[in-house]
Amino acid sequence: MFFVQTLIFTTKEYDFIIIGSGSAGSVVANRLSEISHWRVLLLEAGRPETAFSKTPMMTPFLPFTDFNWGYVTEPTKKACLGLRNKRCPWPRGKALGGTSAINAMIYARGNPEDYNRWANLGNPGWSYEDVLPYFLKSEDANLTNADPKYHKSGGYLRVSNTEISDLAMAFIDAGNELGYKKIDSNTLEQIGMAEIYATIKDGYRFSTASAFLEPVKSRDNLIIVTEARVGKILIDPVTLEAYGVEYILNDRKFTTTARKEVILSAGVLNSPQLLMLSGIGPERHLRELGIKPIQNLPVGQTLYDHLVYVGIIMTTNTSHDLDIAKSFQSNEGLPRLPLVDAIGYIATNKYEDKNYPDIEIYVVPLTFGSHQGGALKNVLGVTEDLYQKMYSELKHTNTIGIFPKLLHPSSVGQMRLKSSNPYDYPLFHPNYYSDPGNLDKRTLIDGIRFVEKMSKTKAFKKFNLQIYSKPVVGCEKFKYDSDEYWSCALEILSTSGLHQMSTCKMGPSHDHMAVVDNELKVYGIKKLRIADGSVIPIPLSGHLNAPTIMIGEKAADLIKEDWK
What we know:
Elements: H1 5-10, E1 13-19, H2 25-32, E2 40-43, H3 51-54, E3 71-72, E4 89-90, H4 112-120, H5 128-138, E5 139-142, E6 157-161, H6 166-177, E7 192-195, E8 197-198, E9 200-201, E10 204-205, H7 208-213, E11 222-225, E12 229-236, E13 241-249, E14 252-264, H8 270-277, E15 280-281, H9 283-288, E16 295-296, E17 307-309, E18 313-315, E19 342-346, E20 359-364, H10 373-380, H11 384-390, E21 399-406, E22 414-416, E23 427-429, H12 439-455, H13 458-461, E24 466-467, H14 483-493, E25 494-496, E26 528-530, H15 545-563
Parallel strand pairs: 1-2, 1-14, 2-11, 5-6, 14-26, 15-16
Antiparallel strand pairs: 3-4, 6-8, 7-19, 9-10, 12-13, 13-14, 17-21, 17-25, 18-21, 18-24, 19-20, 20-21, 22-23
Helix pairs in contact: 2-15, 5-15, 12-14
Active site: 499 (proton donor), 543 (proton acceptor)
Cofactor: FAD
Organism: Pyrocoelia pectoralis
């Protein structure tokens, strides 16, 4: 049992209240409760993980459980057109551990230049030199040949090697033929091909709840309450000071106050929702919904997401399918990830700096053509009509997917509230491919061209790897493999890379799109900080679990420094 409900009925005041137990919230709760005389309350809307959710091979099925909030975008105009209702699924974790309880478990920090750019935007303390110690502080690396400058053991978060298949090894060799060497993408050099490092321990998913909460759940000063739905942050309208929260537990409303701070770690999509419900956000929008504005800030007005093209399927002469039943029989040896086998990072013509990638390449064992292809169809939300017309003939064919992902989108989305009811999901407008210069499409087409080159390498020849070239439904009028064809295909079969960020963007006071400062404090509101991926000001070159854990580590130190 993770939580003790009876204490919450009698205890009305804590030093710190943390909203959300995700990749940052779990870390903050652990680190603040190290101070034995600080009382810390952690509120989580979801429930604890189960043996099912902790089994890595079950990852493709977790979006269909109550561990997922079940968010989808509003209908899009230039992406996700082959998905149901032209909406992209945006699964987010509703569990102890947040999205780290349902994600693909990939540990990829991004590029050092990401953090230097972050700092250079007017955010001192967030350069690569500043944040690397926090990555290392968390990590318990169980990796072969790991560079000790960039990996450490002894932290709470286990990072492990994973099984690498023959086809994934061929992918790495194919990259080598094209001039891209094998790398550890978590070091200074990110251009190249890499095996997957994953947050897995003893064969099981190692979420931030497992890593940071399980070892300290017996601390008397840390109270963890699950299935507690926060509806509002309490803010004094005169002093503009956050002093507590309202939440629903067992159909009853509770109010709890914080002597020192409220820390909002509800995630990229829920943190801005809670701010706006509490009167912090675009003033005009709040008034339209009958919410009294307390602080006019551009909450939810910046929203970035990595975009991935999922239409490159390759037939092969070897079986690459997943034996899901086997995953329950043994946890010996290296675990295999069901969604990604290997990754690569390349730089197209977007940046003059050829050490700064703008495309990530995935090797995906679970494709529309695999025996479990229906699962991928449902995860992505592909329409039955498109699936039957394009991929049903591949049902018993050996296939893999090699998907390019856009790392630094120029297109900017936004989110708004649907109503003042905290149970109404927000409205998400990703605005994919809306950049005026069409740079996002052109960069992804460069990524597709790179995958085509890979398919022709000697490394892939022995597997008779061939791109499945049936025209994408809706793009038949264009010459196959022309830029015009791919431009059309990108609109049909692009979808979210599930790395939303920047909805509560960090920036200096003169940045009119900033919500928090470099110490994670919400502008104009005392005793309120945000610690999660919503504060990241620019799209990063990696995956978001590791950077968000880093934010949690740094947030805890900033808070300790303020309150000593």
